[in-house]
Amino acid sequence: MSEGKYICLYGGEDIEWIRRFTRAAKDVALEAGIQLEFLYLGKSRQQEEVSRKFIRTIEKENISHSLDWNLSRFFWVRLESMWQSKGKFMSELSQVHVRDDNRKNDVIMQGIVSMLSFGSSDSGWALIEKASGDMSNANGDHMLRSFNEYKDWKLRHNERGFTPALNEYLAGLHKIASRHGTSLMLPATGFLPETVDCAECGRLMEKFVHFRCYSD
Q: Where is the Sieve element occlusion C-terminal domain (predicted)?
């Protein structure tokens, strides 16, 4: 990723949201004078035929770039592997001498939890990152609303930069949101923490056992 360029990773299984979001984001990028490229990543455990259907539509309508199902699947499996390795390591540290809240403050772990939460949902989501490391991420509704209301934070963009201003506006939307439904689906084997903080609001998430059949 070249210096000054932004990349937007996005996914979900709502094609209408995908159309609205990418259209709004492209309009904002043009008005803001930034270079923004898009890559569709689908969701975790997305069925192959469903993934290929979305990829065909995205390519046919020239919406954005996309990853082949095999590469997309590898991305999500690799992310789960990072969760397992990082989580187990931090759990072992906490048993020795490191406080448990270090997991909450670990930037890498926060990013992994956010992405896995997005990947567990059928709804849209987006992550925007710059080569410098500045990053914004949110569920589809909040990200789409932020771009539709760009005029309300355009001045802050000029003052602080694009992603800092976007994060500030997203934080305001989180505060006024009446409710949200965030889930995090993890394999039953391997590292499973006792508690997980919601990637959206920071509150403790409820824990359930979930069985699901992925056959058509």
A: 1-214
Extended strands (E) in 12-150: 35-42, 65-66, 125-130, 135-139
Instruction: Measure the CA–CA gap between 114 and 200, rounded to whole angstroms.
Output: 8
- Residues 67-89 pLDDT 10s: 999 999 899 888 888 877 776 76
Rounded distance between C-alpha atoms, residue 51 and residue 11, angstroms: 10
Contacts of 45 (CB under 8 A, 6+ apart): 76, 119, 185, 214
Distance CA 210, CA 216 (A): 18
Contact in structure between 47 and 69 (CB atoms under 8 Å): no
Query: DSSP string of 172-205?
Result: HHHHH-----------SSS---S--B-TTT-PBP
pLDDT above 90: residue 145: yes
- DSSP summary character for residue 123: S
DSSP 206: P
Cα–Cα distance for residue pair 77/37, rounded to 1 Å: 24
Q: 158 pLDDT band (50/70/90 cuts)?
A: very high
Per DSSP, the three-state class of 38 is strand
Question: Is the Cβ–Cβ distance between 8 and 111 less than 8 Å?
Answer: no
Lowest mean pLDDT among 57-71, 118-132, 177-191: 177-191
Question: In 3D, which of 69, 5, 17, 4 has the Cα closest to residue 43?
Answer: 69
